[in-house]
Write a structure and sequence with these properties.
alpha/beta, Rossmann fold, globular
Length: 263
């Protein structure tokens, strides 16, 4: 029987793939919105200096007074960085291009790989009553990505349904193994989600078959289709669930959220 006095501990998931253009930020935004639609309290941590997750959720650059740069470099408390989005149940710790210099500025910091870990476990976070923290990582295996993996309980990997998709996974798996051995022994792979999937395309079906043959149950049953509504939504600064809740893309992200909760 759960202890009614113990604080709620959120599940922390790093969404990462060092290959760009795989739908990483799109997946982070829309999975976060879908989890919120399922009644979960979600924090999205934008750890990509491009700040696309922040922009995609309608956070204007001029409104990002404190960001994940302040969280890491100045160790500003998480509660002072977090902002509400227009989606009920979904918060964000935004990013700006300032974050691009964090690698250099943190290199002399002895706890440089543990800064996000410590920020997400600061005693004040319990008051936020979060169920999930999703970290949108940059498209590279740098110090920011290592911070995300050290902080996370698990890693979710978006995999584009295109040629050479699986080849890029080997380096990511090596990094996960290294982080597990040196800094976060509990880190596991939450799963691999196929994105930009076109069932009419032989290549998409071949990539799916290869992924399932090689990775087995790590691959989510849900696949995210190539869908124009998913592509259009960020230009309106909305997750696809708010932009067109009945589109194939929206329904796929809801199914992914439900599968993640069930896991």
């Amino acid at each position: 029987m759960p202890d009614p006095i113990s604080p709620r501990v959120p599940k922390i998931i790093a969404v990462t793939n060092q290959k760009g253009g795989v739908g990483k930020t799109t997946t982070t935004i829309n999975l976060g919105a879908a989890l919120a639609a399922e009644g979960k309290s979600v924090l999205l941590v934008d750890l990509d200096p491009q700040g696309n997750a922040s922009t995609g959720l309608g956070i204007d650059v001029s409104d990002r007074k404190r960001t994940t740069y302040d969280l890491l470099v100045d160790e500003t408390p998480l509660q002072d960085v977090v902002m509400w989005t227009g989606v009920e149940g979904l918060l964000i710790a935004p990013a700006t291009t300032d974050l691009s210099s964090a690698d250099i500025e943190l290199v002399s910091n002895e706890k440089r790989s543990f800064l996000l870990h410590d920020a997400l476990r600061h005693h004040g976070i319990e008051s936020m009553e979060l169920d999930y923290v999703l970290i949108d990582c940059p498209p590279s295996l740098n110090l920011l990505t290592v911070n995300a993996m050290v902080a996370a309980d698990s890693v979710l990997v978006p995999l584009q349904s295109e040629f050479f998709a699986l080849e890029g996974l080997s380096q990511l798996m090596l990094t996960i193994r290294e982080v597990r051995a040196t800094a976060n022994k509990g880190l596991r792979i939450e799963g691999v989600v196929l994105t930009m999937y076109d069932a009419r395309n032989n290549l998409s079906r071949q990539v799916e078959a290869d992924a399932r043959n090689n990775l087995g149950d790590l691959v989510f049953t849900t696949v995210i289709p190539r869908n124009v509504r998913v592509s259009e939504a960020p230009s309106f600064a909305l997750p696809v669930l708010a932009y067109d809740p009945l589109s194939k893309g929206s329904l796929a992200y809801v199914a992914l959220a439900q599968e993640l909760i069930a896991r």
